[in-house]
Write a structure and sequence with these properties.
Elements lengths: L16 H10 L5 E5 L2 H10 L4 E5 L11 H13 L10 H33 L15 H8 L8
Parallel strand pairs: 1-2
Length: 155
Amino acid sequence: MFNGNPEPEIFEFQTTKEGVDEFIKKVPEGSTVVMETSKTGKTLSIMLYGKYDVHMIAPPEKKPKAKTDKRNAERIIMEDELGYAENDVPSPYIEKPRILISRVMELGAKIYAIKNQIHALIERNMLQSEVEGIIDMFGGEGLEKLSKLDLPDSE
């Protein structure tokens, strides 16, 4: 982070609401804040957007042998000075829908996996005839039939 000083300052803080509030109290608006791209980094960039010039640095491809917060901060600052930063951090108006879409996609994948497990359970217990003729097994009629299937207690 740069406060107009030629030498960057490193601020360590807990990535909690209280930690971020403390950070905001210490660091003047308009400062450049450099952080590593991660789920936490994305959340922080949304929280700090508009108050600071936020730069994101990709994590190293190869994990260092000895990683410390200080070494990590120095690497991030050096990479930002070399111009490796993504300076166009998306605004919350762009980033929040991206996060929401990502969560919806994750939920869809979980639903798909559960439906596959249900199909496998029906096959494994040879209950295909019980749901024969149902067009949508997870529609109203299908769910009613599924709820009445006689399945073993455990496998």
